[in-house]
Every structure is written in structure tokens, then in C-alpha cells.
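Tutorial handout. Part one gives the primary structure; part two gives the three-dimensional structure as C-alpha cells.
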Amino acid sequence: MELFPEAEQSQLFFEELARSRGYRAVAGIDEAGRGPLAGPVVAAAVILPEVFDLPGLNDSKQISEKKRNLLYPLIHEQALAVGVGVSRAGEIDEINILQATLKGMTRAVGRLSLAPDYLLVDGITPIPIGIEQKTLKKGDSRSLSVAAASVVAKVVRDRIMVAYDRLFPEYGFAGHKGYGSQKHRDAIARYGPCVCHRLTFGGVREHCEDI
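Part two.
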């Protein structure tokens, strides 16, 4: 029997309904970085308390970098638990981006200091883990727990890409964060891919002799 009816009243609708059905630790799950040509995919899991104050919290893609960086420490301060899971470029190449994303999400759940009893997962694919869950299309705009996870995942991934930029400044990772901008594609064509690149992705693959 479907836990949730289709009608939604607010961005806390799914969390509140889950609690009304007896679940107490509801974690929102989201990821950042499925589409880029370089860098990891980063997943986050966040369990928010019933009462919190995170003004402006929304899908990380809908708010500015400055706002995400302001929300990031507030989420950590107010959340009951935050977990982050990372799947590196090599793993993405080995098992594909969907499976790497699911592994990252599973790792994020496993790193929560409070064990969740229900998951709200952004997207359409369940996490292969033995916890009751619901997938939500566009979940980062429908659930504040998922939105909080999207902010955490995005900030962590952006910081990783800035660190990569210091190691490989010729690619400009700090600016485009690994996405396929023309500047990034031109750098791959000129220098070839580095260890941060996803060698099986179009835009990189044609510059790899071994693929």
C-alpha cells in the first residue's frame, strides 16, 4: 500500500506524513554532479528535526552559491544528522554514473550518526538498502530534507573541484566545476584528460587512447 497520497500541501508534507505513520528519523537524500565531465558524484543524507530555522532553503540549483555557503553550516548546526558519500571518477567509469550515484547515496546514509527509519530519495531509482523509502521526482523542490541534502552535496562537491583546480589549474575546475563548458572542452583537447576526468563520458572519451 502506497505510504503517501499524491496530494502535497507544503515542502514538509512528506516528512510530516511519514512521522504521522510512525517514522521518526526521516532522511532526505540527494546528489550533485551526475552530469559533469570531471570530478566525483557527491551524495548527501540529512535528517532535519521537526522544528528548524533555515530561511531560503530550497533546491540547491535554485539558490546562489553565496546562499548555499550560508546555509551549509546552518544545516550542520540544526540537523539531527548529516552524512556524505562520494564516488570518484574512476568508480563512475567502472560501474556507470547511475550505479555510482546509488553507491554514493548508500554511503551517505551509512555515515549518518542517527540511523534513519525512512528515506526520501530524489529521483526515480530507489537506493539498494534495507530501509523503507520513497523516491520523489524533483524531490529537492518538494521536500526540505531533500533540499538540505542537495545543498550539502553541492557545497561539498564544489569544494572538491576547487581543490582539484589547485592541482590541475590548466583545466579551470574552480570556475566550471567539471561541467562541459567550452573552456573545459578546449582544455581537454589541448592537454588531454587528467585523473579527475570521467574517461567514459562523451567529450572526454575521444581524447583517451586507451578507451
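Part three, for discussion. The chain is about 40% helix and 15% strand. Helices lie at 13-20, 65-78, 89-95, 97-110, 144-167, 173-176, 182-191.
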